[in-house]
Amino acid sequence: MQNEVADVVVVGAGVVGLATALALLERGRSVRVVDAGTVGCGSSHGNCGTLTPSHALPLAAPGQVARAMRWMLTPDAPLYLKPRFDPALWSWLLRFASRCNHAAMMRSGAARAALLQASRDAFPGFLARHRIDCEFAETGTDHVFRDPRALEAYRAELAALAELGIRSEIIDGPAYEREEPAVRPGVAATVRFPGDASLRPDWYVAGLARAVRDAGGTIDERREVLGIAQARDGSVRVETTSGALACDDVVLAVGAWSPRLAKRLDVPFLARAMQPGKGYSITYDRPALAPRRPVTLQERSVCVSSWGSGYRLGSTMEFSGFDTSLNRRRLDALERAAREYLHDGVGPARREEWYGWRPMSVDDVPLLGPVPGRPRQWLATGHGMLGVSMSIATADLVADLVCGRAPAFDPAPYRPERLA
After folding, report:
1. How do beta strands 31-34 and 218-220 pair?
2. Which of 50, 163, 302, 361 is deepest in the core (most CB within 10 A)?
3. What is the C-alpha to C-alpha distance for residues 14 and 219, in angstroms, rounded to an integer?
4. Which are the contacts of 337, defined by CB distance < 8 A and separation ≥ 6?
5. pTM of the model
6. pLDDT digits over 312-330, tens only?
7. Tens digits of per-residue pLDDT, 35-87?
8. 223-266: per-residue pLDDT in tens?
């Protein structure tokens, strides 16, 4: 097959890859997106769709490793390490553990907050400009506590978020129960983050794909990348299962598959820098009494999202490699938590049970920028649980770097070589 040509090939048709393709198209580049699966088939599909500057603090935080060790024998714990012999995971955990201190947490938090807030500010105009209907709502999010001791422990996190410019307010339990009839009695207090927002993520991804095509981009589904090589003339050759692609630049936005593809794409450090973090969700028809805004059931680390079109329970973090089983205990834990906190914890009809892998870097900060030692190759991965929340700012930053433009904010905290 004769080589096909595009200015930029974007590998990965998830939310980050599609948003980056759209940003490149807006800057006048021709773009082809390729994916081994289908549009949004990974974690872009089944997450809870919250846009959360409130999640600026990273998973790598003081006490996190000890907490995970305690939970190793609790398969339905919010954070679960599946006991097994896995040298790559344990090497990653050692690097992760070295960052579980306050100073490193705040550095990572500042980098995450910059991406989160820039995306959050851009979302209303971006969705309107591209005519993406995804039930976007600027209602804020609520973290509901039933244990006063958990709230007291959380105050340190609120103070750290305040240092990063993230506003919050505390509503006492009785006042919140009057305001939100969906919750059961017994709320100790609720922390509200008024700057957060939400959308339906599968609709958002579908809207991005349509906008890419409308802007002149091409999306090739079920076209797996087999390798990437530098041509003698300085261009890049992308070998795929449907023939070769010649391009000026290639953006690798393959999310949780980054460590698995690291050797094939000749980016070996990704296998050390990243691990897949498995999450779960269940989607239902909307119950009669659903929360008015996205809710986190704090002590259980479960997120509840309500849209006009549906209702979703999700979250949990499981480090079990690329295990493809649907763990019934973890799905049951979602429903058990929802029934504990809410009158109508589950919807009247279950529509989908889902799992997906999040791309977790050792410092929980995305890898955005040039691939070390690989000219004209770029990374846009490592967003953890926040790919949707960070998608617009990520796309603008990566597109500016590819096009040789000065980005709107400092790219240094995201440069991939920090983890090489």
Report:
1. parallel
2. 361
3. 11
4. 297, 300, 302, 313, 345
5. 0.95
6. 999 878 888 898 888 898 8
7. 999 999 988 899 999 999 999 999 988 888 777 777 666 767 777 777 778 88
8. 999 999 988 888 899 999 999 999 999 999 999 999 999 888 88
Given the structure tokens 């002590």, which residue do they identify? 299
Give the separation between CA 192 and CA 183, rounded to whole angstroms. 15
Cα separation, 334 vs 232, in Å, equals 53
Maximum Cα–Cα distance across the chain: 70
Decide if 259 contacts 381 (C-beta within 8 A). no
Q: Is a pLDDT exceeding 60 seen at residue 374?
A: yes
Q: Are 16 and 358 in contact (CB under 8 A)?
A: no
Query: How high is the mean pLDDT of the chain?
Result: 94
How far is the CA of 51 from the CAs of 123, 258, 297, in angstroms?
9, 23, 17
Kind and range of the H or E element at 381? strand 377-381
What's the number of CA atoms in the CB half-sphere (13 Å) around residue 159? 7
- Spell out the domains of the chain, with CATH numbers in brackets: 4-419 (3.50.50.60)
Residue 169 DSSP code: E
Residue 243: C-alpha distances to residues 21, 223, 246 (Å): 21, 9, 10
Q: What per-residue string of b and e applies to 270-299 under the rule 16 or more CB within 10 Å gives b?
A: bbbbbbbbbbbbbbbebbeebbebbbbbbb
